[in-house]
Amino acid sequence: MASRLRERLAVVEEALAGHVVSRAGFVTETASHLMSAGGKRFRPLLVLLAAETGDRADSDEVVTAACVVELTHLASLYHDDVMDEAELRRGADAAHSRWGNHVAILTGDWLFSRSSELTARLGPEAVRIQAETFTRLVEGQILETVTPGPGEDPLAHYLEVVAGKTGSLIATSARYGARFGGATPEVEEALTAYGEIVGSAFQLSDDILDIASDSGESGKTPGTDLREGVPTLPVLMARAANDPADARLIELLDGDLTDDDRHAEVLDLLRKHPALDEARAYVVTRAQEAKAQLAVVPPGPVRDALEAFADIVAVRST
Ligand code: FPP
Ligand code: MG
Ligand code: MG
């Protein structure tokens, strides 16, 4: 299975390289920047893997769908790094650090348009799914900028953000794979539910890495979410613990974390805090839940690979 997926991913990779070429040389440079910098190709990989549950895993439509989700994801990263003021992505300069906000935002728009052109090739139902996915993705991103309403549980609010900004596109990756790979509607539904949970787990792992990893591992600047005041799972869990021993931590979290010394201190306190392991355990539980959706996939190498994929998400280090 692994070597087959590698082969199919190489086909996707070649197609992607073609899709970021513009008639304007400068746009080719800005649009290929993040793709060339690396990336796990998590979404295309899930498309390819999900396609293996059907009888048309080799179809060109599967490759097109894999490109659609990666280009959509890439587009969102150009915008995200502007909003998060993140200087590093995939170990390289974020696009806005190199070319400024205008070019970064417009390159994101351009990539999103390329992705839409490709979606049209997949037919009207794919266009509908794509539009619905993008609506959710942007809603999640907008909700991240507001605090929970009065009486709303901060963790529930946050999980809604995560499901929108990340679960949506990863669910669609699994759906496209099943659909264009020729799986049954029942399997397509199950894989969509699986993708939704795996997607949220993936984002929650990302939150944990923002605190636990160094930039050598993640290719990003640690503590970016904290600096931007974006709540994440370990922080919400530490707050919910309501432990008097956390007085200094809470004071720091409530204050200005753009100050380098305060930022370093809070990062250090969180790295030692039991909430970090609690968050990790939560993500492992979500991975189990994702695997439980796979009951309709016949036992065998494809189901094993989907299970392994969910497990890797829960314990990922990059
Ligand atoms: C990463 O989250 C961000 C997302 C998953 C989605 C962002 C979506 C948008 C910015 C909307 C894009 C709109 C268009 C038109 C393309 P993160 O910041 O928590 O993760 P990170 O650590 O990888 O930065
Ligand atoms: Mg970000
Ligand atoms: Mg963000």
Summarize the entry for a quick read.
Belongs to the FPP/GGPP synthase family. The protein is mostly helical. Helices cover 75% and strands 1% of the residues.
Could you list some keywords that capture this structure?
metal-binding; transferase; mainly alpha; globular; 16 helices
How would you sum up this structure, described in words?
By secondary structure, the chain is mainly alpha-helical. Helix content is 75%, strand content 1%. It contains 16 helices and 2 strands. The chain has a two-stranded antiparallel ribbon. A hairpin with a 2-residue loop joins β1 (88-89) and β2 (92-93). α12 packs across α15 (274-292) and α15 (274-292) packs antiparallel against α16. The model has no long low-confidence stretch (mean pLDDT 94). It binds farnesyl diphosphate and magnesium ion (2 copies). The site of farnesyl diphosphate has 17 residues, from α4, α6, α7, α8 and α9. This is Polyprenyl synthetase family protein. InterPro entries: Isoprenoid_synthase_dom_sf, Polyprenyl_synt, Polyprenyl_synt_CS.
Distance between the termini: 22 Å
Coarse structural class: mainly alpha
> Mean pLDDT, as a whole number?
94
Specify Rg, calculated over alpha carbons: 20 Å
What's the order of the H and E elements? HHHHEEHHHHHHHHHHHH
The major pleated sheet works out as:
2 strands, antiparallel
Proportion in helices: over 70%
Question: Which strand-content bin applies to the residues?
Answer: under 5%
Shape: globular
Number of E strands: 2
- Compute the number of helices: 16
Low-confidence stretches: none
Q: Determine the oligomeric state from the structure.
A: single chain
Distinct small molecules = farnesyl diphosphate, magnesium ion
Cofactor: Mg(2+)
Family: Belongs to the FPP/GGPP synthase family.
Keywords: Magnesium, Metal-binding, Transferase
Protein name: Polyprenyl synthetase family protein
